[in-house]
Automatic annotation (TrEMBL):
InterPro entries: BC10-like, Glyco_trans_14. It comes from the Eukaryota. It comes from Fraxinus pennsylvanica. It is found in: Membrane. The lineage of its organism: Eukaryota, Viridiplantae, Streptophyta, Embryophyta, Tracheophyta. This is Core-2/I-branching beta-1,6-N-acetylglucosaminyltransferase family protein. Its main location: membrane.
Length: 326
């Protein structure tokens, strides 16, 4: 029997619910599109902003990992009861085969992936790949980049409201004058990127659909960064902050919402294991916060935190009801 796929023409006269179903991507994220085809397809954007069907905006949680998600049980608890308000996408090493049970929110959420290396353009490629796959679902409105060592700091409702009600997207984009900021700029970036436009920020971000589209459609700055921002210019700290500053600086909160501890020094932030997860540690994350949210002073600055080792899971589970709210 031949299966006939519905065409756009066959959907024009259908009820909104049917059109809604037609717009949804397949439940199985595995596809055969090339990188070029994926980015092209993901760059589509409706010019008519009023949707002809009921659209509940979702947060796409995009996980950039090496392999397993050791903290998945904590995330399972975080997502429980909120189906329809989130999507999950996982980019891991191509050789990794996930074994999540069918009951898991992470089941079949891996996208076609390629090897990504720290500090190199392949890392940004992986992030673009995640965003592109998530953009295929028209219901995804916000996109949060996470790693396997990240945890949520609040319950799902708080996170959803904080992100959905923000006027800005959360990505750091700083004009740092020292050797680790402007010192990494290469004048071969001209004329596409002037040194005054050069920005630095955390790799971990939350952006809305408009900014995600800017990232996947970019063909102007990408070649420059791929050729002229190589270690010790760490491209994942500069490409997206610079691109989005040039395209939409007024839409950036200019800070990350992922808490990280750099107090120990070195090229990588601190990693916390079982012995670190105490009540005093949790209080240190939450207390004394003050930042700007929607142009006003606010006490919640971070919605996520990293880096947590697999051994931290049991203690995080124990303290989650008191400190994380779920």
């Amino acid at each position: 029997m031949t299966t006939v796929k519905p065409s756009l023409q066959s959907c024009i006269g259908e009820e909104p619910n049917n059109l809604d179903r037609w717009m949804r991507p397949p439940a199985d994220l595995i596809h055969s599109m090339s990188e070029e085809e994926l980015l092209w397809r993901a760059s589509f954007s409706p010019r008519v902003k009023k949707y002809p069907f009921k659209r509940v905006p979702k947060i796409a949680f995009v996980f950039l990992t090496k392999g397993p998600l050791p903290l998945a049980p904590l995330w399972e608890r975080f997502f429980k009861g909120h189906k329809g308000l989130y999507s999950i996408y996982i980019h891991s090493l191509p050789s990794y085969q996930a074994d999540f049970p069918s009951s898991s929110v992470f089941y079949n959420r891996q996208i076609p992936s390629q090897v990504s290396e720290w500090g190199k353009m392949s890392m940004c490629d992986a992030e673009r790949r995640l965003l592109a796959n998530a953009l295929l679902d028209i219901h995804n409105e916000w996109f949060v980049l996470l790693s396997e060592s990240c945890i949520p700091l609040f319950n799902f409702t708080t996170v959803y409201n904080h992100i959905s009600q923000s006027k800005y997207s959360f990505i750091g984009a700083f004009d740092e004058l020292g050797p680790y900021g402007r010192g990494r700029y290469n004048y071969n970036m001209l004329p596409e990127v002037n040194i005054t436009q050069w920005r630095k920020g955390s790799q971990w971000f939350e952006i809305d659909r408009k900014l995600a589209l800017y990232i996947v459609e970019d063909a102007k700055l990408y070649p420059k960064f791929a050729e002229f921002c190589k270690p010790a210019c760490f491209v994942d700290e500069h490409y997206f902050p610079t691109l989005l500053t040039i395209r939409a600086a007024n839409l950036l909160a200019n800070r990350t919402i992922t808490w990280t501890d750099w107090s120990r020094g070195g090229a990588h932030p601190a990693t916390f294991g079982q012995s670190d997860i105490t009540e005093e540690f949790m209080k240190r994350i939450f207390e004394g916060q003050s930042c700007v949210y929607n142009d006003k002073s606010y006490s919640i600055c971070y919605l996520f935190a990293r880096k947590f080792a697999p051994s931290a899971l049991e203690r995080l589970f124990f303290l989650a009801p008191k400190y994380l709210g779920f």
